[in-house]
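Hey L., structure's done. Input below.
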Amino acid sequence: MLSRNQQKLIRSLHQKKQREKHGLFLIEGNTIITDLVQSGKIHPGNLEILAAAPEWLDRGVLKDPGLLRQAVSTDPADLKKLSGLVSPPEVIAVLRMPTVANSASSQGPAPVPSPTNSQVNPPETAPPPEPMSEPSKPLSKYPPELFRPEQLREGVTLVFESIRDPGNLGTIIRTADWFGIRNIICSQDSVDTYNNKVVQASMGAVLSTRPIYMNLTELFEVAGRFKIPVYGTTMDGADFYETPVRVPGLIVFGNESRGISRSLDSYFRNKLRIPDFPAGVSGTESLNVATSVAVVCAEIRRRQRQ
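Output:
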């Protein structure tokens, strides 16, 4: 049975301030937690509490003694009070937020390799690479362990300005994880990675693909100094299917309703547009940002296989 302090802690984690204070977040749901346990992404090193109905525990999902020690048999009525879901789950996990030191060990399958300083068809001339050293000016208030310039050489980096919908960010993280893209960078005003709805929509992919939050202008200046191209996805861009996209490179997606701020245009090597079909016939104003990310990721990986 959960103690009062444990119940209070779980309820508090529905708030960003409390998640940051404790370094903990929630994952809820039978399927998602079962899958994460069986894949080893929930393990004794990151599990703080696992509150589960007796029926769920009786299924024998937990086999590791370390996980069993953290499991607490919980009345379904109490789970309903603690849950943020419309349909109360049989199990809620309280997990420790990944740190830079331990995230490499919990990355899951290795990412799809990306050719260094290569072109994703069609070809274009790549400038000679420069040594990746620390930038001459500090990156805002963020400590260096949260962002390393050399990360930008690790294939494709997805960048997001002012993503506000937690369902969108969760789906984006899940999509990036599927395509083996580990670099995701969000502007500081984007929704929190550990928002309960983000975690649920990601189906636990936040445990292997975790966004970094930073000032995008500073990010693009670093990319420019190291000759790493930045591409913006816009409604007035060139046809994405006919435009060279160099890897490593940054691909930027904008806010759900406003798109990308015009103030960022000067940083883009090219603007990219996913064309409708037939051209100009669709009555839909634009694609959902998470859908756009899926299209772009699939096309980038398709070109790399050729």
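The mean pLDDT is 87. The domain at 118-305 is CATH 3.40.1280.10 (Alpha/beta knot).

-- N.
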